[in-house]
Amino acid sequence: MPIKIPNNLPASQVLEEENIFVMDADRAYGQDIRPLRLLILNLMPNKSVTETQLLRLLGNTPLQVEVDFIYTESYVPQHTSQDYLTEFYGTFAEVRHKKYDGFLITGAPVEHMAFEEVAYWDEVAEIMEWSKKHCYSTFHICWGAQAGLYYHYGIRKHPTGTKVFGVYRHHLCVEHERLFRGFDDEFYVPHSRHTEVHREEIEGVPELTLLAEAEGRAGVYAIANLAKRQFFITGHAEYDPLSLKQEYDRDVAAGLPIEIPQNYYPDDDPSRMPVVRWRSVANLLFANWLNYYVYQETPYELDGLYRVGDD
């Protein structure tokens, strides 16, 4: 939460220059508080695992958050029962009349396929178009990030050859970006994917800003269109400590070609417990998004929400 200080306190300028969020008394007294409304399009097969990962982070702030989950009607999930979906999820048709403070779209295990070949692509594209006028800020993760960059800006995904798999060191590409307030100069994030977006294609779109990237094979990590409040995150800060281990063990058991995840096991020894390097990163990333780009920005009356630049 921000530091509330007296109006025009000289320290405020110093704090702002140090990237510390401050709020003067007039703004603080004028704020109305209500729960934030978030929508999550969960495209992962094991939906309960992804729900837990995201809710753990979204719930780790002083903010009140209300979450709706939806799944795609155009494709029936194979690893989640219909009873579970009926009890805990809705469909796009059931929420399309609503407005949300924030919208998250998860990854999906379909990155080997062209976007148009994915069974639910038309529905996902419709939801992304709808989100521009019904959701104040959007947060795209992994395949969701690639899908958003492709749909909104025509940026293609490219095969990586061998899988980008492990915990990679990252650095920021901009200074004083609110999404990364509190981050160290270098930070670690898990990645698990077979495709990537290229830096030069992102730099060719004036509306987009490259916020952070990884060293080595993981490449581009965070991209934003700050004017439209869209964020595209190619890694998995939300992963549990054993997520990469479970993927690795699954592929080894199935006899599939898989490398030991990088920077994950001590001495690259899969018989040892992994080292978690990204827990604080995950909590900061989601808390910063919720605070600075949702809570502090969203209009109090969502019924009047209309995205700047959308006609």
Number of strands: 12
Radius of gyration: 20 Å
- From the spread of the alpha carbons, the general shape counts as globular
Largest sheet properties: 10 strands, mixed
Task: Quote the distance from N terminus to C terminus.
Answer: 34 Å
In the predicted model, the low-confidence regions spanning at least 5 consecutive residues are 1-6
- Strand content range: 15-25%
Q: Going across the major beta sheet, what is the strand order?
A: 5-4-3-6-7-12-11-10-8-9
Helix content: 25-40%
Element pattern in H and E: EHEHEHEHEHEHEHEEHEEEHH
- Roughly what is the average pLDDT, rounded to an integer? 89
Q: What is the count of DSSP helices, taking H or I runs of 4+ residues? A: 10
Class per helix and strand makeup: alpha/beta
Topology (elements, then pairings):
Elements: E1 3-5, H1 11-17, E2 22-24, H2 25-29, E3 36-41, H3 47-58, E4 65-71, H4 82-88, E5 90-91, H5 92-95, E6 100-105, H6 121-134, E7 135-141, H7 143-153, E8 158-172, E9 186-196, H8 199-203, E10 209-214, E11 220-225, E12 230-233, H9 243-253, H10 279-295
